[in-house]
Write a structure and sequence with these properties.
Length: 34
C-alpha cells in the first residue's frame, strides 16, 4: 500500500467535497436569502 497515493486521493476527494458544500451553501443563500 502506497501511503502517499492514498493521502493524495483522500485530499482530492476532500477538496471536491468541500467545494461542493461551499457551492451548495452559496446557492442556497442566493435562493433563500440570508
Amino acid at each position: 500500500m502506497n501511503k502517499k497515493k492514498i493521502i493524495k486521493k483522500l485530499t482530492q476527494i476532500f477538496d471536491l467535497e468541500l467545494s461542493g458544500v461551499i457551492r451548495y451553501t452559496h446557492y442556497s443563500l442566493m435562493i433563500f436569502g440570508p
